[in-house]
Structure prediction request, 221 residues.
Amino acid sequence: MNIGVIAGDPLDTQMGVDFLRERNINAHGYPAAYSAQEQTFIMQMMSVEERTSVIKSIFQKAIKDGSDGFFIYCNSLSAVVDMDTMSHIFGKVVVTPLHVYKNLAKKYKRIMAIAGNNQGMAGIERTICMENPDCYVVGMGCFPIVRAVEESLPPEEIVRKFGFENLMSLYIGADCECLILGCTHFGYFQEALEKVFPAPIINPAEGMLEILLERMERKKN
Prediction:
């Protein structure tokens, strides 16, 4: 099984590749942009047709390289390109964080989420609320946190600098039941965050892997 990891920039692409390889899955990375800043431009400034064309080209290259399925390790990319349509066009299994959020919508009714930008946040909220109209999402997009990860700021410093401990007051006040790390960069400081944020923290990566393996097995049979 060869999995193509498509993400926003080289860092989160490599994080996705490493995640799969650590679990003995052959993976190769295909970033959509050269930097997080460029990724944000692609996501927010291009037309739908232009974005779709960029991603189609990546799919074509990865399939030519031998990819059997795809792991879309980027929330904002998943939010602005219809990856289910990509799956249909290319006849490949394609899994994104949004597939995990659909499952979460069946379990929770009050969810907090932090994303790398507001396009990603909108996609998370839309996915959850379409799956469960009785669920509400409290969230924000914060690109400077992505930049801090890109700059290798120590995880504990990121948690302190961006006031995550103070975020707990909003979490409690809004009666939230879990916190979604709605950007694949944010797994970088998850352990540090868990020390100051005593609530269920959900990183979609493990859930994505479960869905990927299940769908790849189903397709094989």
